[in-house]
Design goal:
317 residues, mainly alpha, two-stranded antiparallel sheet
Amino acid sequence: MAQEWASNLLQSTEACFSDTDIYLEQQIEVHMRESKLVIPIIHDLIKGKIEPESAAVALASICRDRITTGGDFTAPESIWKVFCSAVDHFGGDSKIRDRLVLLLVNLSKIEVLGSDGSPIQSNMNRDTFWRQLPGYSLGFRDEMTCVPSIDGFNNDAEFEDWKRRFENGNAFQAQWISQVGRDGPTREYKSAINIGLWHLRGALDPNIVDSPLGLRRLELWIPGAAQWILIAGNVVFNLCREKELNDGTPTNKHWLCDEGVDGYGFEGNEGFSLERWAFWKTKLRHVAGLKGVSVNISILADEAATKMEQTEKSTYL
């Protein structure tokens, strides 16, 4: 399966670049060359043929010349696109997620030295290059989590692709925040908890229309939200106890324009809170008992709600 993924990704990369405007030809050539080098490294990491530390060194070496020569090079987009594709297709496997997490951890420890022997900074965040994984969080957001509204899919195949990508993307970020958290790059920690809050809210804050579109929205959003509880429930609960990203202002009622949403259920403040945690738990129990949802969604919602109850008990014992 990994070999097929690598082959298909390389073909799609070539097709994508072949249709781009002529004035970008030089930049396209660079990305094309880098992608061809990145894909086999990620493939071998997934297959367990190389370790995350070795994969990180190999990936960093691909961009070394562009980093050391300066110019306008800010972020290794080719690496992030291939990485996100790997999360999309293999992020449902916890062992592969672990290897991909460790790849980023090792990559963030690499320093690129200039001719004077001092570490070269990234043009994007002015930190030592690789330290904050320049461009990664933006690339991940765009590739993995910018999910369309429920009436915005062209066909069932597109819906199923996004459903897999959305669930696996959330599973990866949940594993990152659980496994690495504050010990990793600060930017990625903040990005991960924002993604977690945004997608838990998107899945559980709004009221759902009692219609095929409403049920379809649950099929898309609940699996991703459940990953945050099932993988990183303790972290999410602590964020709620600490009122992370909560400044006391009333919550913004996003998603009201989604055809699968019928008004807003949560009326508390922005950010994480125990009030929101309790609301999410009740909502998950409600979803688990809804008629019309698939067996998979019912099981996931029930498991997540149970994990929340277990987390509360273990915390307060």
